[in-house]
Design a protein that fits this description.
The chain is built from three helices and five strands. It has 117 residues and is of the alpha+beta class. A five-stranded mixed sheet has the order 2-1-5-3-4. A hairpin with a 2-residue loop joins strand 3 and strand 4. The model has no long low-confidence stretch (mean pLDDT 80). May serve as docking site to facilitate the association of other proteins to the plasma membrane. This is Membrane-anchored ubiquitin-fold protein. Its main location: membrane.
């Protein structure tokens, strides 16, 4: 199996319904490399874009793809049509620091202080 079958046409569907791609990737491409490609091609006009690969989750055939897996390993035999385009959904997660700050603020707001006289 060489040539066209070793290549996959992938487009990335963003949460607002717009797409990045399609673009051809070798089956040996890692999911982390796909995420780097998304970062490089992220539309500049979009306000809440990912800052790092860790901010991006890729979903294909209902499964969250792991960074260390290859595109070939993640292929779904039921969904992939030879010569067709595979759509992967992109979810951007807010940076962990913002989550931690929000959690700390929530804890401070819910803090109860008792004074005994």
């Amino acid at each position: 199996m060489s040539g066209v079958q070793d290549q996959l046409e992938i487009k990335f569907r963003l949460t607002d319904g717009s797409d990045i791609g399609p673009k051809s990737f070798p089956a040996a491409t890692s999911v982390a490399t796909l995420k780097e490609s998304i970062l490089a091609q992220w539309p500049k006009e979009k306000v809440s874009g990912p800052m790092t690969v860790k901010d991006v989750k890729l979903i294909s055939a209902g499964k969250i793809l792991e960074n260390n897996r290859t595109v070939g390993e993640c292929r779904s035999p039921l969904c992939d049509i030879p010569g067709g385009v595979t759509t992967m959904h992109v979810v951007v997660q807010p940076p962990a620091l913002e989550k931690e700050k929000k959690a700390l603020n929530d804890q401070e707001q819910n803090k109860c202080v008792c004074v005994i006289l």
